[in-house]
Write a structure and sequence with these properties.
Layout lengths: L6 E5 L5 E10 L4 E6 L4 E6 L6 E3 L7 E4 L4
């Protein structure tokens, strides 16, 4: 279950990655707000088709990977 403060990795379309931090968890963990290294806040939703977090604007945007503690 995602939680505020959790570490994450944002996988950008085309291959770039950046670290991020979960700021807020909504809809019982199905919608997340994440701040990237550059300070930009992105919103991700859990895709029912793939069970992965995709950008709220559509599946061709960045994806989110939650990282374990430590």
């Amino acid at each position: 279950m995602p939680r505020a403060g959790a570490r994450a990795r944002i996988a950008h379309f085309g291959g770039g990655f950046e670290l991020g931090t979960v700021l807020a968890v909504h809809e019982e963990g199905r919608r997340l707000q994440v701040r990237g290294e550059g300070g930009e806040v992105l919103e991700f939703v859990l895709s029912p088709a793939t069970a992965r977090f995709v950008h709220a604007d559509g599946p061709t945007g960045p994806r989110l990977e939650l990282l374990g503690d430590g």
